[in-house]
Amino acid sequence: MFAITTDNNSDLPMTYLKEHDIGLMSLSYTVDGQTYDAHHPMPDADFYARMRAGAMPTTAQVNPEEARRVLEQALETHDCVLHIAFSSGLSGSYQSARIAAMELQEQYPDKQIAVVDSLAASLGQGLLVHFAVQMRDAGQSFQQTVDWCMENRPHIVHLFTVDDLFHLYRGGRVSKATAIVGSMLNMKPVLHVDDEGKLVAVGKMRGRKRALDDLVKRMGEQIGDYENKTFFISHGDCLADAEYVRDQVKEKFGIPDCLINFVGPSIGAHSGPGTVALFFLGKQR
Q1: Which residue, among 150, 139, 151, 131, has the nearest Cα to 232 in the 3D structure?
Q2: What is the Cα–Cα distance from 124 to 119, expressed in whole angstroms?
Q3: What are the beta bridge partners of residue 159?
Q4: DSSP collapsed to 3 states, the chain
Q5: What is the four-CA torsion angle of 146, 149, 151, 157, rounded to 10 degrees?
Q6: In the chain, what are the domain boundaries?
Q7: How many percent of the chain have pLDDT more than 90?
Q8: Closest CA to 87 of 232, 195, 186
Q9: Which Pfam families does the entry mention (predicted)?
Q10: Cα–Cα distance measured from residue 271 to residue 43, given in angstroms and rounded to the nearest whole number
């Protein structure tokens, strides 16, 4: 059986990671001068409370030393390691993992390391990890799982909305004029992650509930013939809204299982409190 590793921008719960023996690389984040990471975290609810109080966190990618540490630890007990990385369109963390993997491949020539650029974020990345875990546990080979991830990553659909455009403006995702006008008119953007793993606005709705409903509407347009047995939702400390979307999806599409978790601080620093994101397999992003 092969090892699977990822990074904390997959936003999978620690209980899930431990249960399925998934190694974790950490991006770090700094709040009010104090630096945290997945190994020494600030509680998610506290992080969002600090943001609501005016804190403006910054983030840093996985560094090659951290990537090497996690991969080498996996190589100590496995001949093959699959690492599923945060989108290269949003961070240099994938490149750090590749550098570490190339160095370790020279050191361990009889072992295999595959670094997959998920082209995904948050629980979209987490959903790809979840499918890899299912394949591994069902007895699929290392190469079969790597190939499946590469072939199906364009079908991990991301749909999300944010409550406050300021955080996207601060991160350079929308213009200042868009942020100001949108806030004045109570416009809520609907965004997705495209085939290059980058954030792209696909619509805007007036009012929060309409934006949440639009996520579910777009799911119906994009799911195609895929028979999803599970879907994931992440949220920026707005559980009730995440549960509203979950209930709508279950009612409309009959998908039985849903995992809900926080948008972690490394992504939440850029999307802000009130983010709701929906992830599933579909015909296209």
Answers
A1: 131
A2: 9
A3: 278
A4: CCEEEEEHHHCCCHHHHHHCCEEEECCEEEECCEEEECCECCCHHHHHHHHHCCCCCEEECCCHHHHHHHHHHHHCCCCEEEEEECCCCCCCHHHHHHHHHHHHHHHCCCCEEEEEECCCCHHHHHHHHHHHHHHHHCCCCHHHHHHHHHHHHHHEEEEEECCCHHHHHHCCCCCHHHHHHHHHCCEEEEEEECCCCCEEEEEEEECHHHHHHHHHHHHHHHCCCCCCCEEEEEECCCHHHHHHHHHHHHHHHCCCEEEEEECCHHHHHHHCCCCEEEEEECCCC
A5: -170
A6: 3-153, 155-281
A7: 88
A8: 195
A9: DegV (PF02645)
A10: 17
pTM of model > 0.70 = yes
> Residue 165 and residue 151: Cα distance in Å, rounded?
33
- pLDDT of residue 206 exceeding 70, the answer is yes
Q: How far apart are CA 34 and CA 165, in angstroms?
A: 25
| Phi, psi (rounded to 5 degrees) for 53 | -85, 0
For the chain, the straight-line distance linking the first and the last C-alpha, in angstroms and rounded, comes to: 31
- 64-92: per-residue pLDDT in tens? 999 999 999 999 999 999 999 999 999 99
Q: What is the pLDDT of residues 153-179, one digit of tens each?
A: 999 999 999 998 888 777 776 777 777
Distance CA 244, CA 239 (A): 9
The CATH code of the domain at 155-281 is 3.30.1180.10
**Tokens describing residue 72:** 């080498």
- pLDDT at residue number 173: 67
